Amino acid sequence: MTRTSGPRRAAVALLIAAATLLASHATGRAEDALTAQEIYNKPGPHPVATAVRTNPCQESIAGMVAHIGVHLFGNTADLTCTQAFPYGLQSPIGVNTYYPADITELPSAPLLVFTPGINANPGMYDTLAKRFAEQGFVVVVPYDFFNSLAYVPALGVAVAVLANRDPSSPLFGRIDLGRTVFGGHSAGGQAALQAATVFPPAAPLIDPALRVAGVLAIEPGPLALGTTVTVPTLFLTGYNDFVVPDFAWVRWWQYDLMAAPAWIANARGVTHFSPVDGIEHYRAAGAAIAWLRYLALGDAEAASWFTGPDWRLPADQTYFSVHRNARADALD
Known about the structure:
Order of helices and strands: HHEEHEEEHEHEHEEHEHHEH
Shape: globular
Oligomer: single chain
C-alpha cells in the first residue's frame, strides 16, 4: 500500500481547492453571461386577452408589398395584419388593446401605449404586444397609418382612460395610469418621444392619476428632441439598421441631448424591420421587456440591467455598444 506524504497531501488538497474555486467562478460567469434576451424574451406569467384578429399580410396588395420588403431586409417570419385600411377594408384609424386575462386577480396593471411605424399595420406588432401584455401590462396600440405624431399615442391614452372609467369594461378601475409608458417603433418611437414631451405637464388635466413613467423608443424617427423629454428613456437601435442608423439623429439630437436619464443600446444583427419579425428573432426584445419591468413593475432583478455601478447591459454580448448618460448614472 502506497502512502501519500504530508507535503504531497497538502499539494493535492490545494489543487482540489483551486479546481473547486475555478469551477465555482466558471458557473458564476456562465450565469452572468446570460443575455437579457435569454432571460426575458419568453412567455410571461399572464395569459393575454384581446379582441384583435390577424391574418397573413399577403392577403392584401399592400400587405404583400410589405411582406416582400421586410423579407428582403432579412426577416424570417411572415407578417401578420389586421383589416385596417389599406391592408383591409376597416378604418385606418383605431386602437388595439391587449391585457392580462387574469387582470381581475391583479391589484392593477401599468399602461403601455405602443405606436407602430409609419405605414405599418398594427397587426404587425401583434406578437410583440402580446409579449408585453404577458408581463402584466395593459397594452394599447393606437394607429392612423402614418403613426408619426403625438396625437396618435394621445388617442391610445384616451381609449385607456375611458376604459378605466367604464363600468362595462373588463379594464374598469384596473389600469394604473400612474405607471404609463410611451413606446413605439420607428415613426412610432418618434411619436412616443413627442408624447413624453407633451403629456407630463398636461397629465393632471387629462386624469388626476395619469403620470408618465418613461419611454421605450425603438429605432425612432428624427422628429423629436431629447432636450424636451423629461422622463427616463431607453433607446434601442440596430447595428444593421440603415433606416435609423445608430450614429445619426438618434444620438445627435435625441440621446445626446436628453434632459432626463437615458440609455442607448445598439443590438447586433438587428435591422429596422426586426421588431416586426417573429418575437424570437427580435434580439432586443429581452432588453425592452427588462426595461418595462424595471420602469413600471419595480422589478429589482430587471433594474440591475440598467442601474448600479455594475449594471449588466454593457456585458450583454447581444449589443455592439451600450451607454447611459450622467443623469442615469446619478440614479445609482
